[in-house]
Every structure is written in C-alpha cells, then in structure tokens.
Amino acid sequence: MALDLVLLGPPGSGKGTQAAGLTDKYRIPQIATGDILRAQVEAGTPQGQRVRSYLDRGELVPDQLVVDIIRHRLSEPDTEAGFILDGFPRTVTQAQALDAMLAELQRPLDAVLYLQVDRQSLLDRLGQRHRQDDRPEIADHRIDVFLDQTAPLIGYYPELVAAAIDDIIRPLVGAGGGPNTRPTAS
Length: 186
Ligand code: ADP
Description:
By secondary structure, this protein is α/β, with parallel strands linked by helices.
C-alpha cells in the first residue's frame, strides 16, 4: 500500500531532517522542492537564474513553476510506493493543484504533518546553517512568507496532524530523545 505524506512547517522547523528519517524507515522518496530548485540554480540555465532571484530574496517561486516540477516528479516510478513532499505545497493554489493531480492518480494523501516551532527557535536554528538565504534578514522574511502564504494551509487540511514541538526538536538538538521522537501519522 502506498504511503503519501506531506510535511508542512516553517523554514528551520526540521522538515528535511524528518523527511530523511521517514525515507529511511519507509523506503519512499523525499521530494524537496527547495532542493530541486537549488539544483536548477546550480545548473546555471536561464530558468535557474530566474529561480535564483526568488530564492535569494526569500520569496516563493511562482506556483506554476513548482506545480510543474511536482507533476513531473510524481510521474516517476519510484513514487509508486509513496512519497514525502517536503516543502510543497506552500500556497493554497499549490495545494489545490496537488489535490487535482492526486485525484487524477486516484491516490489521496494519507497524512499531512505540521511541524510547529516557535519563531525564536526557528531563527536560532537557521542561524546555525550556512545557506545563502539563511542570512538573518532573509531568514526572518522567509518566516513571514510562511505565516502569510503557507500557514493558511493549516485550515485547508483539517485532518492535519500537529507534531509536538518537543518531539521534533529533542532529537535535532541531540538531547537524548526517547523512542517516541518522530512525528506520528494518524
Ligand atoms: P525552507 O523550508 O528552510 O525555507 P526550502 O529548501 O524548502 O527551505 O525552500 C527554500 C526556498 O525555495 C524558499 O524560500 C522558496 O524560495 C523556494 N521554494 C521551495 N519550495 C517552494 C514551493 N513549494 N513554492 C514556492 N517556492 C518554493
């Protein structure tokens, strides 16, 4: 049976780390739009240069661009057993496009996991990374963009599972953590 998951959370909430853990455990691919977009920037194509201008400012790239990326990625055979969407959808428009795609494929989402972390912890965590868009003023702006454009998805997915902050943060900071440190799907 396929396991189709969405990980929703602000920048620095640990989506990538949690998705990697789920990939190992359930053998389903992690699909991180941020990674795919950064690869396009690296490729240095005209499209990559256009993408870069959004990433550098901490703005979302246009919906159509990421929706096309996801449509293409979900058509690849390794997604048959399931997938973890990490960083998509990020707007209501993207969520509606995802619903339409999944309806066509006749595979509804199994769970939407929301990683909830307070702003100061996010800034602290982003401050420890070294990505170009993790500079304090851009990081701060990305959190605002999350609150404006992505947080409304919390209402869009009424059956979303909110993972406890502690359960997420404890293993990340390496303060021990028990067996029950992953976000749990319903
Ligand atoms: P973070 O969650 O820390 O912001 P990501 O790697 O998920 O890191 O995203 C980095 C950047 O990539 C975002 O600031 C945005 O510019 C772009 N991006 C990623 N996913 C999307 C998306 N679904 N829609 C629009 N832009 C996106």
